Amino acid sequence: MCLALGIFTTLTGCTTMAPRYSQPAAPVSAAWPDGPAYPPLTAKPAQKPIAEIPWREFFVDPQLQKLIELSLENNRDLRVALLNIERSRAQYQIQRADLMPKIDATAGANFQRTAEDFSSNGRATTVEQYNVGLGVSSYELDLFGRVRSLKDQALEQYLATEQAQRSVQISLVSQVASSYLVLAADRERLALARETLVSQQESYKLIKSRFEAGVSSSLALNQARTTVDAARVEIARYTTLVAQDENALNLVVGSPVPTELLPQALSETLTSVKDLSPGLPSEVLLQRPDILQAEGQLKGANANIGAARAAFFPRITLVSNVGFGSEDLAGLFKPGSFAWKFAPQITLPIFNGGSNRANLTVVEVDRDIAVARYEKAIQTAFREVADALAQRGTIDEQLNAQQSLTDATGESYRLSQARFDKGVDSYLAVLDSQRSLYGAQQNLIGTRISRLNNLVTLYKVLGGGAGGK
Q1: Residues 6 or more apart from 285 whose CB is under 8 A from it?
Q2: What pLDDT does 187 receive?
Q3: Cα–Cα distance measured from residue 84 to residue 77, given in angstroms and rounded to the nearest whole number
Q4: What confidence tens digit (pLDDT) does each residue in 14-48 have?
Q5: Going by DSSP bridges, is the β-strand pair 125-141/315-326 parallel, antiparallel, or unpaired?
Q6: pTM, whole model, 2 decimals?
Q7: Domain of 210: which CATH number?
Q8: By residue range, what is the domain housing residue 457?
Q9: Is residue 329 part of a domain?
Q10: Residue 226: inside a domain, yes or no?
């Protein structure tokens, strides 16, 4: 018995015929791009890697934190990702179970009456048979690793779905933050449009009274009216955008967002980290969940080659059964009723029209496709980080320039209004200054949201929170 058990363990514990896995080299530069658009990258040993900074530490705005919590509980994409993990885990358990024999308990009875013409003694007879036992049905001895390769493929698929869930969660957190910022910016733009309307209405009333007094011309009156109507158009446009932003936020959160959690304006204290160190590409990119997912799929495709190669070799299956049988139920367990059956079977492929070779070609091509997808995922991730760094290197200068432009435009508007009030210039100069000021203020809001969104994007593309819960 010990010898048989040892042989069984040796035969079923063999290695697979899959090729030895070797991680493909990253098809990107060993360093991030440099140039005028990129910030100087200095080593900061005291700073934790981005992947180890949980989202609760990165996003410190209380309203945004509550929204992210709601999204992690209710977002359907994340729920599907979690269910995919459960599905892949069950599929792996099914495939792993094929490595062990399946033992079934059986019990049965058979009653048969034989007619006189068919009976050997010329008399009708009735036969009763009872049996009970344990059996192994069609267990495959995995001599060439076919079943083990399929188990390895299912395991890699399961691990890949775990990485996919982590990737979905990182994307969800950043998407909630981005939607939150878009709503805050559009609400700020709507407030600016309303303030502009109030100001333009006051100017229109003043010019109208001067027109009625014969001081201002009809041209100035109509020019003032155009500014009022333009402000009304902007209010209607941003009212629509705010409503659409709220709908988008409700969708990404997965449930209606309470009013008290909606932002009123952009917050400069959105995050606790103002300067992110990207680290080296080899350290950052290969630890991103989407890269690890692609590598898991590559490992699974590599394992499939082992199963395809094993199909060229004999397959040995075992069928066995032990138990007791008797014609009398009372004598089922009496001495002499013990019975057994052992039926090994070997199947050797001889001719199958080339299907095994074609199947091997298919899985080898699938492995090559998985390599290309893995390399493309690394290249895409490198480009995402490089783009975010390029914007990071210039966004502060752009914000300072836009703020200076807004201040100068505001002063220009004040001076043109004063010259119009004294009758030095026409109202056209005031109108041009008003439009320039409004455009500069809107662009300033856009630059501020770009700066905040850049931090969110950097946190996402650098795998922010991937190493935490």
Answers
A1: 26, 28, 291, 378, 381, 382, 385
A2: 95
A3: 11
A4: 578 899 999 999 999 888 888 888 887 765 655 67
A5: antiparallel
A6: 0.83
A7: 1.20.1600.10
A8: 23-80+146-314+376-461
A9: no
A10: yes
